[in-house]
Amino acid sequence: MQLYDLGSVSVLVVDDNRFMRTIVTNTLNGIGVRNVLQADSVDQALQQLADAAVDMVISDWDMGEKSGIELIRRVRANRTLRLLPIIMLTANTTRSNIFAARDAGVTEFLAKPISAQALYSRVVEVIERPRQFVKTRQFFGPDRRRRRTDGYRGPKRRKEDQ
Question: Mind listing the pLDDT tens digit for each residue in 115-128?
């Protein structure tokens, strides 16, 4: 893994728990991210995103009245922000929640409790392997498929594949 200089990366940390925001911010600082903004709600996060240029968002899922899923949906619906990478951070890592976050348009998923290595890996993943975005009638967000099918030998169903 290549070591990155993350000093110029700007991250917005969204969590209603001040202690957790501090942990994530300190961990980001520890891996070299110097510009970290914080928000304690979806509304405050949207205001921060309107006011400042941010390279990625790390958001908690459960924040009371409005969830991290609501934040993802609002970001993906905003033409200016829609391509912004979003890492979902949550302790509730059931399969259905992972799928719900994916289906809302999350870029990466990270389980609590976090480690510096896990957080660094997700940030690097966003940098090294940016996902293509998909737009359908019901979805706009990063391509949900993770596996490459370069060796696929079956029928081609898309015009661009033929």
Answer: 999 999 999 988 88
In the chain, the domains with their CATH numbers are 10-146 (3.40.50.2300)
Tell me how far CA of residue 85 lies from CA of 9, 93, 150, 162, in angstroms: 12, 19, 25, 31
pTM (2 d.p.): 0.83
What confidence tens digit (pLDDT) does each residue in 7-53 have?
Answer: 999 999 999 999 999 999 999 999 999 999 999 999 999 999 999 99
DSSP string, 60-125: ES--TTS-HHHHHHHHHH-TTTTT--EEEEES---HHHHHHHHHHT-SEEEESSP-HHHHHHHHHH
Q: Which two tokens stand for residue 87?
A: 């890492």
